[in-house]
């Protein structure tokens, strides 16, 4: 039973346009959400996070939106650049409940076309 | 600061053997977590160590074990290897217990023949 789902295995976007990556979760105990980017042959790199007490967090070109009622979060990248091409993982934990393990989605491969 | 390092980077073993993977966290980080990445299951949490104690454990059989040393370095051991254990094993370190911006190493690619 997947508790964190990324339903789009891949996404292609033109350079300069907006990339929107989606993530759904089922565990209502999750209260902290993170996005990681992964290049081939490298470990995941932390990108941005959001606590469940917020509905938006912004860091430069990256914005994460959280809709708790829908158990949905999304990562917006504006404008998209070719260097953003990577696999993006959504992750969640229930640290408020004492669970400090990350549950990951299976990832979305983003391709930004020049 | 040097990042998280994992050794070896690549490993080939046969069924029934055992393997030990090593992870050196970022200097000053006391929490080390291990994850398994496979194409079918994605990234799955194995366990987390903090100050030499296992604090959290994922849903993996007892063949998977680990430990952490006083210098925060961690090892992961898999005994009686199975073909399905072929995966990328990732280690992540954090400055405190929890997932607060874990920093991942490049991983060890284990192939079981």
Structural class of chain B: mainly beta
Strand content of chain A: over 45%
Number of H/I helices of chain B? 0
Largest interface: A-B, 23 and 25 residues
Separation, N- and C-terminal Cα atoms of chain B: 37 Å
Q: Indicate the overall shape of chain B.
A: globular
Contiguous helical run count of chain A: 0
Mean pLDDT of chain B: 92
Helix content of chain A: under 10%
Low-confidence runs of at least 5 consecutive residues of chain A: none
Low confidence ranges of chain B: none
**Helical residue percent band of chain B:** under 10%
The major pleated sheet of chain A works out as: 6 strands, mixed
Order of H and E elements of chain B: EEEEEEEEEEE
Structural class of chain A: mainly beta
Oligomeric state of the chains present here: heterodimer
Largest sheet of chain B: 7 strands, mixed
Strand-residue fraction of chain B? over 45%
Instruction: Give me the count of strands of chain A.
Output: 11
> SSE order of chain A in H/E notation?
EEEEEEEEEEE
Furnish the topology, listing elements before pairings:
The complex is a heterodimer of chains A (114) and B (113).
Chain A: E1 4-5, E2 10-14, E3 19-25, E4 32-38, E5 45-51, E6 56-59, E7 62-67, E8 72-77, E9 86-94, E10 99-104, E11 108-113
Parallel strand pairs in A: 2-11
Antiparallel strand pairs in A: 1-3, 3-8, 4-5, 4-9, 6-7, 7-8, 9-10, 9-11
Chain B: E1 5-7, E2 10-13, E3 19-24, E4 31-38, E5 42-50, E6 53-57, E7 64-68, E8 74-78, E9 87-94, E10 103-104, E11 108-112
Please characterize this protein's 3D structure.
- In chain A, about 0% of the residues lie in helices and about 55% in strands.
- With about 110 residues, chain A is mostly beta strands.
- In chain A, strands 2, 4, 5, 9, 10 and 11 form a six-stranded mixed sheet that branches. In chain A, strands 1-3-8-7-6 form a five-stranded antiparallel sheet, with no helix packed on it.
- In chain A, a hairpin with a 2-residue loop joins strand 6 and strand 7.
- The N and C termini of chain A lie far apart (about 40 Å).
- With about 110 residues, chain B is mainly beta.
- Chain B is built from no helices and eleven strands.
- In chain B, strand 4 and strand 5 form a beta hairpin.
- Chain B is globular, with a radius of gyration of 13 Å.
- The N and C termini of chain B lie far apart (about 35 Å).
- Classes of the chains: A mainly beta (about 110), B mainly beta (about 110).
- At the A-B interface, strand 4, strand 5, strand 9 and strand 10 of A face strand 5 and strand 10 of B.
């Amino acid at each position: 039973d997947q508790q964190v789902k990324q339903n789009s295995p891949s996404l292609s976007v033109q350079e300069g346009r907006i990339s929107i990556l989606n993530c759904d979760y089922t565990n209502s105990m999750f209260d902290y959400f993170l996005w990681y980017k992964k290049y081939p042959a490298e470990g995941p790199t932390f990108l941005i996070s959001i606590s469940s007490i917020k509905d938006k967090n912004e860091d430069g070109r990256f914005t994460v939106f959280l809709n708790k009622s829908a158990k949905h979060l999304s990562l917006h990248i504006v404008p998209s650049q070719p260097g953003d091409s990577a696999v993006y993982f959504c992750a969640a934990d229930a640290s408020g409940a004492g669970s400090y393990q990350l549950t990951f989605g299976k990832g979305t491969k983003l391709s930004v076309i020049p | 600061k040097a990042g998280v390092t994992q050794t070896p980077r690549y490993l080939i073993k046969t069924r029934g053997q055992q393997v030990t993977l090593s992870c050196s966290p970022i200097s000053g980080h006391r929490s080390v977590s291990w994850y398994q990445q496979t194409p079918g299951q994605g990234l799955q949490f194995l366990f987390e160590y903090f100050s030499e104690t296992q604090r959290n454990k994922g849903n993996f059989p007892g063949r998977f074990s680990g430990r952490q040393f006083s210098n925060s370095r961690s090892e992961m051991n898999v005994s009686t290897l199975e073909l399905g254990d072929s995966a990328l094993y990732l280690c992540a370190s954090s400055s405190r217990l929890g997932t607060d911006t874990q920093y991942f190493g490049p991983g060890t690619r284990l192939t079981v023949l």
